[in-house]
STING ligand-binding domain-containing protein (Henosepilachna vigintioctopunctata), 386 residues
Amino acid sequence: NYGSGMAYSFFHGYLKLILPKSGREDKNLIEEIENYADSQGVTFPVAKLFILIPNSCVCHVSLKDDKFPSIEESSSLGEKIQTVAAVQNRVYKNSVYKILDNKRKERVYVCVEYATPLSTFRKGLESSGPHTEYYREHSQDIVLQFYITLKKLLKEDPEITDLCDLIYYDDMEENGKFRDVAQIILTRIRKIQ
Amino acid sequence: NYGSGMAYSFFHGYLKLILPKSGREDKNLIEEIENYADSQGVTFPVAKLFILIPNSCVCHVSLKDDKFPSIEESSSLGEKIQTVAAVQNRVYKNSVYKILDNKRKERVYVCVEYATPLSTFRKGLESSGPHTEYYREHSQDIVLQFYITLKKLLKEDPEITDLCDLIYYDDMEENGKFRDVAQIILTRIRKIQ
Ligand SMILES: Nc1nc(=O)c2ncn([C@@H]3O[C@@H]4COP(=O)(O)O[C@H]5[C@@H](O)[C@H](n6cnc7c(N)ncnc76)O[C@@H]5COP(=O)(O)O[C@@H]3[C@@H]4O)c2[nH]1
């Protein structure tokens, strides 16, 4: 089904490529983060890639957004360049954001992204196509299936299981406004620390 | 189902992003190809992105491969850089290859790639996971469903329909050897010309 298919694709086509060490020269995610933290003189409370899985599938272009006033963009981690399926020199890199923690009065660096397949799925829902009607009706199940399957794939792969944390959340309030994702991320960071 | 899901993902997450003009500064695929042809002094018989859909899902890392002696890599078309789903500055660019046409004694430039979702799907088949058994049994149907759905999505989008040509083919011979994809691409080019 669509949801578990998206999870397989995200796992084998992205997470498995970018998170671990892929060559002798390469670094895994933790080393990339340490490298960044040293060279930029900043601190990451948790050295993992946080993956946002919002129930609505609304993936804002950037986390730097008027709705999330405590979040700023920071430069990305090191690039991995790989020729894949005849696409020459495909560029992969994880994103870094800094979040102002108002309670503790500190600036927190974190490696975080939306689950890209959901963003693409959402674009599909907003278009018209042979299967769009069905996908719209079942979108909540599809997101849940994506989350459950991805969780399982990560758990069963010792090479990646500690490099990644899934945040599956209800991103909209009753009144249709978006919740502040900064708080959601900070809560998860403080829980793990 | 998995196949049509992959088609939606490839269409909305890639083809729709990279082929048309996305901004005033941007070029669409045809303009990118003309730009390249002018600056490098070469000829593209057909200004389209050819997408290889091999029945086996085996997507070689590059088309420059001992199995395809007439094909060489060339530099890629212009890059498009976009922040997508909080992934900052994601890099997209189409690949160019030159093919030696032995019959006509000429070197032909072509914009061609494998359908990347199939490469990812294949990696999934080679792994173990909650759904892998099912995917292996139905892989041929899944590829066919991918092709049919993608064909339909392209046909229904006037902005992209002429920028793309799908090559769905049996990539292996009876004896298990790979067919020379150079011949398959050249045959399609000569047919369109
Ligand atoms: N965050 C993030 N950064 C990346 O660089 C990246 N690359 C892929 N993905 C996501 O992993 C999964 C597997 O990727 P695959 O390559 O099989 O399919 C991809 C691939 O076939 C094609 N595509 C996307 N970006 C490119 C690209 N730069 N070059 C060629 N093809 C691309 O369009 C499909 C859907 O892409 P996304 O919907 O953006 O999400 C993908 C997908 O969910 C990424 N996610």
